[in-house]
Design a protein that fits this description.
This protein is mostly beta strands and about 120 residues long. The chain contains 1 helix and 9 strands, in the order H-E-E-E-E-E-E-E-E-E. The chain has a single domain, classed as Jelly Rolls, CATH 2.60.120. The longest helix is centred in the N-terminal third of the chain and has 14 residues.
């Protein structure tokens, strides 16, 4: 009985198919100081990006938007307006993952420096 159970366990365990493994490819720093909306990059096919942090060097009352489609702000960095005369810095070290085909845009942000730190992984079957 033990041998039958063990053999059945081995058959089931070896038939499970994984979705793939991630292999480090490179570290990326996407940056710009252009005033207009700018495409910073697109996640290549067969890769995923892990965004490690993002921010901007703006001061005062300005904030910068980041977008996945070039028009709608998905998240912001810089000094974000809270109401009245209050502002809060929103540079972030929050991590998130982007699948292949995702585009990253920096939205209109005067001429302030913006950056995004990314680790790129290969998807290995």
């Amino acid at each position: 009985m033990r041998i039958t159970t063990f053999v059945l366990f081995l058959i089931i365990a070896t038939s499970v198919v994984a979705q793939g493994n991630l292999q480090f490819n490179q570290a990326l720093l996407l940056s710009t100081n252009q005033a207009s909306n700018e495409l910073l990059g697109t996640v290549p096919v067969g890769k995923v990006w892990k965004v490690e942090g993002f921010g901007s060097g703006n001061s005062g009352a300005s904030e910068c938007g980041w977008s996945f489609d070039g028009t709608n702000a998905a998240f912001r960095s810089g000094n974000v307006y809270l109401g009245g005369s209050a502002y809060q810095s929103s540079n972030s070290t929050s991590t998130f993952w982007l699948p292949a085909g995702t585009t990253i845009y920096s939205l209109n942000c005067a001429s302030n420096y913006r950056w995004m730190s990314i680790i790129e992984f290969n998807i290995v079957p």
